[in-house]
Known about the structure:
Elements: H1 2-15, H2 29-34, H3 39-49, H4 51-58, H5 68-78, H6 80-89, H7 93-101, H8 106-115, H9 117-120, H10 126-139, H11 141-144
Helix pairs in contact: 5-10, 6-8, 7-8
Amino acid sequence: xxxLILLLSLISTSVFAAQGEVGPAGCGLGNQIFGTDNQILAxxxxxxxxxxxxxxxxxxxxxxxxxxxxxxxNFIDTNKVALSNDAARGQGETLANLSEMMxxxxxxxxxxxxxxxxxxxxxxxxxxxxSRLMMVVENNASAAKCGT
Length: 148
């Protein structure tokens, strides 16, 4: 029983440990234990323990991609319909939240997104929407009043 408690203690400590580098095996308990040194063991551990799926769902086990693009892509994916409607009008809560995430002025950003609506939302693919939005904002940073 003491061994089980010790093992669970080690697992919970490693699951919530600080983020580190993620190798081809991905995030999860295998990444926490083996890092990028032994990807075969990391992958086997991830696959057999189910911690990679848990980590991705819960944002633990080094499964958080904190890059701004990933956050924006996640926001777009979660709010795609409402964002599309707000973008077509050039205003709205989801568009205002997105402009804040991107460091842009709400009103100016809304106008730029509305102007380029057909370019940005000509697909339902979240990655394509995100990359087109980033391109539009980059090309119109002064008009959107962005600090990017």
